[in-house]
């Protein structure tokens, strides 16, 4: 239904430095986005403006410069590193006689190419339809006329209005299907909560190395590449943390500065994995000179989706690309882990990451040696079922000295069912 640039499509890139800091983008990021979309950047037109021109976004002189670049390089598309209004996009296309895409349209195109699962494709289609609905006039100006015929004369409906109505109907249908997906995901999360299995969610700026780290920790083969938005569909894996126990690790879509609201809304079902996590691992590309700005952008999106109050641990990845950096664990004044420096590619520092994660999750853990008499054999069996037993020793009187480690809430549920208290079992001498 939607056109997408073919691989190798020649593109002229346009980047303007705006007066307002909050409106500024990164020209390097535009090049990476273009390459990720399969385009071939042939020219970069840069400039400075206090504010966008209402008609073309750029001034007349810069527009002429873009036109010359398009003709000289025989470009087929012009990519703007900014958000354009529908009228600006139409005016530019009419003047330049090539297709024009703004930053939002470019990101949507990458998402359309990368979506693999049914849910991911629905989310991308929803975002595309909502973006397209404001730009319909471009393709239908020649059909702006009333329908005629017997029984159809009168006010009627223009072709444009028909298309808008069809798109509204499709958007409504996708919302219903995504709501069903959201409920299915919530059921899965409820099941994990009942089993008291915490979820650790990897978040971070796009291309920070989340999927590579995910593969390294979970021994998976999720698609990972040195490009923006390599991951769109969330992937969950159950792993065992040393000195903690089973957890669910979630790999999620990367964030980007000025992430279009349409995408945040469309991927709400996916982002809920982040909102319901017990711990966030905020993965940062330590080799990126703009890592501080990237961190701020991720925190902004986390706040937008309501995940800013979830405990988090900074994971500074790609230390192998730094000249003077080595894997290390940094603690705050209370002795709690706050930053870990690792390399997902080489595996350096992952042991430190596991220790830090286990410590943060284990802040509310029961780590005790219990004396379990033969009469409480069922309690011992339940502890084994929950993978909570670290070691066990059988005593001469038939009792068991059992060293356990498990979440406190999990222990309280089990102890209530079996009618015992922790003090009763730890106070006895085996």
From TrEMBL:
Subcellular localization(s) per the UniProt record: Cytoplasm
SUPFAM superfamilies (UniProt xref): EF-G C-terminal domain-like, P-loop containing nucleoside triphosphate hydrolases
Hflx-type G domain mapped to chain residues: 198-365
InterPro entries reported for this sequence: EFG_III/V, G_HFLX_dom, GTP-bd, GTP-bd_M, GTPase_HflX, GTPase_HflX_N, GTPase_HflX_N_sf, HflX_C
GO molecular function, one term: metal ion binding
Residues binding GTP: 204-211, 229-233, 251-254, 317-320
Gene Ontology cellular component terms for the protein in this record: cytoplasm
Cofactor(s) required, per the database record: Mg(2+)
Record-linked Pfam families: GTP-bdg_M, GTP-bdg_N, HflX_C, MMR_HSR1
UniProt keyword terms in alphabetical order: Cytoplasm, GTP-binding, Magnesium, Metal-binding, Nucleotide-binding
Entry keyword Ribosomal protein: no
Binding residues for Mg(2+): 211, 231
Lineage top rank: taxon: Bacteria
Entry-linked HAMAP family: GTPase_HflX
Role, per record: GTPase that associates with the 50S ribosomal subunit and may have a role during protein synthesis or ribosome biogenesis.
Assembly information from the UniProt record: Monomer. Associates with the 50S ribosomal subunit.
UniProt record similarity statement: Belongs to the TRAFAC class OBG-HflX-like GTPase superfamily. HflX GTPase family.
The name this protein goes by in its record: GTPase HflX
Organism in which the protein naturally occurs: Hahella chejuensis (strain KCTC 2396)
Gene from which the chain derives: hflX
